[in-house]
Each structure stands twice: as C-alpha cells, then as structure tokens.
Amino acid sequence: MRSVKKEEIYKALVEIVGRDYVSDRKEDLYIYSRDPGLEEAHEPDFVVMPKTVEEVQEIVRLANRERIPVVPVGASLSLSGLTIPYKGGIVVDLRRMDRIIEVNRMGRYAVVEAGVTQGKLKAYLEENFPDLCHSLPEAPPSATIVGNLVIHGQGHLAQQYGFNSSMVTGLEVVLPSGDVCRIGSCALGPYWFSVEPFPVPAGLFLGWFGATGIITKVGIRLYPRKRLRDVEVFVVEDPKLVPEVVYRVAHTEMAEDLTTSAQPYPPIYQGIVMIQVYINGDTEEELEFKRRLIWRSLKEIIDAKEGGFMALTPDIRGTLLEEPIPTLTRFADVLRGGGFVYCGAIIPVEKFPEALKRLFEIAERHQVTFAHSGRVIGRGHCMMFAFAYPFNREDAASMERAKKALDESYIATLEMGGIPWKPDLSAQRMMIERMDKGAAELLKRIRKLLDPNGIMSPANWGVEP
Ligand SMILES: Cc1cc2nc3c(=O)[nH]c(=O)nc-3n(C[C@H](O)[C@H](O)[C@H](O)COP(=O)(O)OP(=O)(O)OC[C@H]3O[C@@H](n4cnc5c(N)ncnc54)[C@H](O)[C@@H]3O)c2cc1C
C-alpha cells in the first residue's frame, strides 16, 4: 500500500511519462538500488523513464515542489555506486532518450541524446560514417555516452586527445529548477561544434555525477577512423622503465592508444609489465612507418636488453584488437556471482612504479588477487592507473577484503598526489577533507546556487550516508 503522499506523486509521474514508464514495484526498484560494485544498496521510491526533454523538466519540477531527491541514471556501470539513490526519491533512467540526432561529417562531431549507448553510436558510425569514430572506453557497450562524460571517462583516443569530457562540443541540460539551457555554439545557432569560447564552462555539469542537473543532449567530437589497426606489446621487468617507455612512444606521436597492464595470473605474466602500443593507418605503408618510428624510439632500451617487443599469437592479437576488449573482466568470474571493483587513480606517469608497488603491497596485505590496467592520457600528461580487485558475492569475506583493498588504494592515490577517478562516497569524503579549502567552498557554493533545495543526486559531492 502506498501512503497518500506517495500515491499522489505516483499519479503525477504517470501523468508525465505514462503508466508504462513509471514504477514503484519492488522488483523494478531492486535493479536501481545497486550497481555491480560493492556499495551498499538503497532503494529509490520510484523509477521513471522519460522520452522527451519536456518530460525530464516536468519530473524535476515535481521533485523540486515536493523536495524529493532525483538521481539520473545511464547504465549504472561506474562500479562505484554513483547512481545508487542513497536518499531514496526518483531514479530517472534516461535510456529511452536514445536518438542519434546528428552527425556532422565535415565538422567531425555527433549530437546524441542522453540515453545513447557506446555500442549504439559505434555501430551507427561503422555503418554510416566508416571514416569516423568516437573515443571508445573499455566499458560494456550498454554504457551511455553521457554517463561516461559525466565521470570524465577515457577511451581509446585518450593518449592523443585527453579525457572524453574534453571532447564535448555542446550540452543541453535540465537544471535543478526544471529550466533547460544549452551551452556552447548550440546556444547561439544550429551548430554543435564547440563549447569554447564561452564564459560558462561545461564543467558546471561534467564531473558532478548528476548533482547539478540532467544532461539531455551532448555534442562530442569524432575523429578519423583509419582502415587498419594493429597492436604491439612492449615488455619490461623493471616498472621504473615504464615512464620512460611511455615518454618515448608518446613523443613519436605515432600511437593511437597506449595502455599498460600487469597481473599475477596466468603465471607467465608474473614479474613483467606490458605496454600495449596501438597503431592505425589507412595503408600497410602507413602502419609500417609508424611501427618503425615506435621501434626506433625504444631501440636503446631494447639494445640494453631492458625490454623488448613480445611475439603475439593471432589469438592474442585478435583479442587485444577487439573494441571494447572482452577479456578485461574475465578475472572476475562473473558467471559464478563474481564482480570486480577498481580505483582509477589519475596520476602523473612518473608515479607508475610507486603505484604498482603499492598495488602489490595492498593485494598482499588483504590477501586479494588483483589486476592492473592503465591508460595514458594526453601525450603522457597523466595516466589512469587502475587498482582492480575481484570478489564473489557468494563469499562475504572476499567482498570485505576487496572493499578494504579499494579504500586503501584511494588513500594511496591521494598520498601519491593523484586524483581518485569516479570516487565512491568514502573516497569523495576523503577528497573533500583534503581538498584546498577554497576549492571545497566553491564547489559547495556552485551547487547551492544551482540547486538551492538540494534535490539533485544529493549524496554525490555532498556525502553523508
Ligand atoms: C568492464 C568495465 C570496463 C570499463 N572501462 C572503462 C574505460 O575504459 N573507460 C572509462 O571511462 N570507463 C570505464 N568503465 C567505467 C564505466 O562503466 C564507464 O565510464 C561508463 O561509460 C559509465 O556510463 P554509464 O552509462 O554506466 O553511467 P552511469 O553509471 O549510469 O552514470 C555515471 C554518473 O553520471 C550520472 N549521469 C548519468 N546520466 C546522466 C545525465 N544524463 N545527466 C547528468 N548526470 C548523469 C549518474 O548519476 C552517475 O553519477 C568500465 C566499466 C566496466 C564495468
């Protein structure tokens, strides 16, 4: 039985989105009360699936009138509980808003609605614009483009062009008041080619985890998709060499993507760090040219027998070239109730050896297995270093161990001068405590200004649950 108040809100939501797209049934709320990570579940009161911007506006206005929390949701795949409705309220699942509105080939950008997934845009471009691509993360294809931008994600073009969020060319946002606004060239005319040179930064909405408004449309940059792609794997035993290898390869400006990995299983991987160097080209000659420059940049290290390229079987090469790479999650034994969490540490590349040492120590201390994967961002301006730990939901002790290892990894990140990426609530708390006081106060004021009633994703960057 719903209370009188809940009945009224339910009816108001039905009026906005229609009966089929609002629910307060236990079995529906269950799905939205958690994500695949380790954070504690909390049920929302309602879940709604709007189709239009006007419906999103109406939902937010209702929530504001009634002072009900609102949490926007894409595919809930952040793994750090960022979509868990810690204070209940209305979960707004945006996946019915899934139109690819425009691809501007000459201007190399796409405009998509908030529910468009990585898989949908990739497939659409492959079919209709095979010479263009967007920066694709290794997340499952059901992850949304917008969800990834909101958390400052990184895809396969990060080494060349930086965080995916710096590829945003325009935004349409429903503000916590219910008003809608556009940011960038789309605020002045029909084109979505750039957010600069505007005084209002798109940063008021990116990195906020839904706490400042609901993005309903986004413009993102597209880049040349070359016809051929290949991968080379450079192996070193001494992690201290990794920053130098990254520096040299990035300096050639020949790599499409540059990733790192280290893991204890299978045993053949023990004691080595692998640096995956992706190259692309429209012809074999272009590929060969890039390959040669990259090999030459590492010649001294090869000659000194401190590192070398690994021979790859066609199977391994094929797997490494898949987008996204499917084996990333294999260590998590998902079919038997397994999952994994990771602390994505955004660190200077020179901190790689220390980060790896800390990962080994943390894993040893908590008796957990681990995997490291990393991605170079910009031409080595920084990197994402993942401390990843698997767990099994059947085994509470394994979950506790993984959680402790995760918390320690956040602390290690901060101690190394890094930034925890897509931090869970406990890491957000740590960050706010340690942050420059002026910066913390500014974040609070921006939030209060945009959302005086505190309805938007109230836990994220507000933390107390
Ligand atoms: C196996 C695996 C591999 C991964 N690899 C990568 C990787 O290589 N690179 C990478 O960047 N990430 C990676 N991730 C992390 C994550 O899955 C992705 O970043 C994903 O794109 C997040 O999208 P989502 O739709 O799941 O977002 P959600 O988790 O649904 O949302 C993320 C945040 O954005 C907010 N939000 C969602 N939609 C809106 C909106 N319309 N307006 C305002 N706020 C909104 C949510 O409230 C939440 O705070 C990986 C995850 C997994 C499970």
Structure description:
This protein is of the alpha+beta class and 465 residues long. The protein has four domains: 3-95, Uridine Diphospho-n-acetylenolpyruvylglucosamine Reductase, domain 2 (2-Layer Sandwich), CATH 3.30.43.10; 97-224, 2-Layer Sandwich (Uridine Diphospho-n-acetylenolpyruvylglucosamine Reductase, domain 3), CATH 3.30.465; 228-320, Alpha-Beta Plaits (2-Layer Sandwich), CATH 3.30.70.3450; 327-426, Alpha-Beta Plaits (2-Layer Sandwich), CATH 3.30.70.260. The protein has helices at residues 4-17, 26-32, 53-66, 118-128, 145-150, 158-161, 242-252, 284-297, 299-303, 314-320, 352-365, 396-415, 425-434, 437-450; strands at residues 22-23, 46-48, 70-73, 90-93, 100-104, 109-113, 132-133, 168-174, 180-184, 214-221, 223-224, 228-236, 257-262, 273-281, 307-309, 338-347, 371-377, 382-392, 419-421. The strands form four sheets. An eight-stranded antiparallel beta sheet has the order 15-12-14-13-17-18-16-19. A five-stranded antiparallel beta sheet has the order 5-6-10-8-9. A hairpin with a 5-residue loop joins strand 8 and strand 9 (180-184). The longest helix has 20 residues, at 396-415. The protein starts with a helix and ends in a 15-residue tail after the last helix. Flavin-adenine dinucleotide binds next to strand 3, helix 5 and strand 10.
